[in-house]
Amino acid sequence: MKQSLQLKFSQHLALTPQLQQSIRLLQLSTLELNQEIEQMLIENPLLERMDNPLESMVRLDSQGAMLAGASNSVSGDGQPAPNAGVAEGAPEHGAGESGGESAADRNSDDFGQDTDRDFDGAAGDIVVDWGADRRDRNDDDADHVRTQAAPAGRSLEAHLLEQLQALRCSRRDALMVELLIRELDDNGWLPRPVDALFDDLIDRLHQLRQPLEDAQQGRATAAGPDRTELGELLALLVRLAPPDFRAHDPACAQQLLGALLAHTATDLTVPLERSEMQAAANMLRSFDPAGVGARDLADCLALQLQRLPRRQWPSVDGWEAAYTIVTQHLPLLAARDWNRLRKVLQLGEDPEDEQTLRDAQSLIRSLQPLPAKDFASGEAGYVVPDVIVRRTRNSWTATLNPDVMPRLRVSDLYARILRRNKASGGLSTQLQEARWLVKNVQQRFDTILRVAQAIVERQREFFTHGEVAMRPLVLREIAEVLGLHESTVSRVTTQKYMLTPSGTFELKYFFGSHVATDTGGSASSTAIRALIRQLVAAEDNRQPLSDSRLADILGEQGIVVARRTVAKYRESLRIPAVTQRRAL
Hints:
Oligomer: single chain
Helix content: 40-55%
């Protein structure tokens, strides 16, 4: 093989570290950006944040009193210090972030102690934001009041446990009910069979046998459950014991465990039976709200109907028909197959039978299929808008939300040190990285504002008239106007939100495909969906509009759309088919 030299010319794009960081920051959401900045603040000492969200927060104890020394805005005696609401060196537009921390230590019962309550909750400190995001704004409205903390919603589990405490029952029965409450799903149902839950309880108690035998013989065990799980099992064992039982040593606990599992005989307690778990399930099903603890949807509706006396409903026949439908023919009601429902209920077409079927349908629709719907199921997720759209005198204007804009700077102290000592190679690199980050963050928000303003200018009719006035828009159109790449616009519009008088929308919401019109123009798919929603809302329930009829109506308005397209848009709006929208 012969070796030779060749001269070749080529062009390629080299992504510098600064450009890579700029692209990465551009595609991050607001939450991810704050996490990235916090990580950089930890790693780079030359970077400072001027809008510390914790500087104006006050810590409160479980009684609502301010804790001394918990924050810079609290004096040593626990009273608010002077200028507590305004931090020193506060920025013009601070980024207010409400933080919260709570700790609940669940302490299991100590081995050998007999207590009715095995867990004591110790409420931790509460961090409350006293309005840091608006502390330096001169609001002319003197009546503007900010709440200190959002009220916490009450959970279904707490509601049921409160009812359980009011019952007069043995703590063994109460424990059975409590175990079932912990097994409820997000709907308030108990989908797992009671027999399976009882078997799980027996299996958990079986896990205690080996640790108790090892403790009784004075040897340590390498296998078996960890300390946390072992503590929970011991607490469960003690709560299953009668009130007069005292387990002072592993031998007594071993005897109690054998009695519960029917391995040994004792006069102190009786073995666990499946009937106890079933009785606990029946007790749970009698709690408020009606339908809690049901196995499925049909069982949930049947439990609610059983709570309604027949005399309270205008038609006794309607109540009986409703109970028959929910227990035996619920799929027919979901499909609105009225002819088959009349046949299985042995109803005719005379006005009296029609009224009975209407009463049954109205009664079922008045029930709550999800007992846990009105209770807090967890922390609510909030979207913080990056851009705010306001109406000016003649147009709409987009502005950045100052609450999501972190204010960063390079530390003056370290910068002066580097100017005096230029030999610090490590600090010089961190100084350059800090300057890159400050510049890239500012460039990120400038790009977001440019794209948002371009969207507002092209969707002006949407902000004035609503969804029906949405015009077709693609990423390429915004990219050509702003001189950006299409991928850059895609990164800007992903996980970035805009607050408008009509609600909060992701920037990608304003982009959509187009459908041709008979005049040679085009209509946005979002506008067509809005028209379909309006047509279905105004239709006659006795004669609902089919997909073909909706396509014809849109065609009369100049929008050429096929029936399959209408069906696709209708399904995306979660509008049922024509057969399921037909009423009696």
